[in-house]
Amino acid sequence: MFRRRIYFIRKLWRIIANKRDLMRFIIWAFIRCRYWPKSIVLEIRVLNKVHSVIIRGIDDLAVLEEVFVDGEYQLSGEGDLDGIIDLGAHAGFASIYLKTVFDSAKLLSVEPDIANYRSLTQNLQKFDSAELMNLAVSEKEEIIPLYIKNKASFSISHLENDSDRSYVGNAVGMPIDWFLAKFDVDSRLVLKFDVEGAEKYIYNIINKDSRIIILLGEHHEDLSGIRIHDTVEMLSNYEITWESLGSGRFILRGSRIR
Q: Are 17 and 45 in contact (CB under 8 A)?
């Protein structure tokens, strides 16, 4: 754990917006105990803008690294877009990044886990027009169980496919076309997804929706049961590139073929 904390300090110090918060972050990382807050609010710099985010622990730090240091959802040259849909928003870090890139776009962030959703509402409160939903993506409207990957609280799925996941509660699941219908934006959307296997329910629908110009997301071969090359074929209306993250996980980036 000590080495893990050192690792995140070295990786994340550049995005912390001021020296005071950097010192608070270092102290928080090393002296967390019953007399010290379990979470901390930090100001981070995103594309020359400053945002306040609440950090609950190592798992949030891992997602911060993915979004703001590794640039998993980095975009360039896409121009103005009208709307952002973030499916599997966790604590809202990808939503913050995308809303900073497309500051005039309408935002819909969807997260099934109630603890993550509470952090999401805090982290996105500065975006007055953002619409937040405590829902899951599923094949149909239904109540679904949620499972957490042991030792990784940011990996929430409703697909229990191995013994390394524990039941954490239920959520209301809705199909992807319901979210698209509820989101009142007529054109030029970016869709980000990290839905831990439920991507198998969304590919055919989003491939047909001409409003979605940009796709960004994590594909999980083990949870979805779909190989990465089959995913590229399913998304035939997009020019798809992908990058392996290891362990059957891939980052997909897609631009709609005009």
A: yes
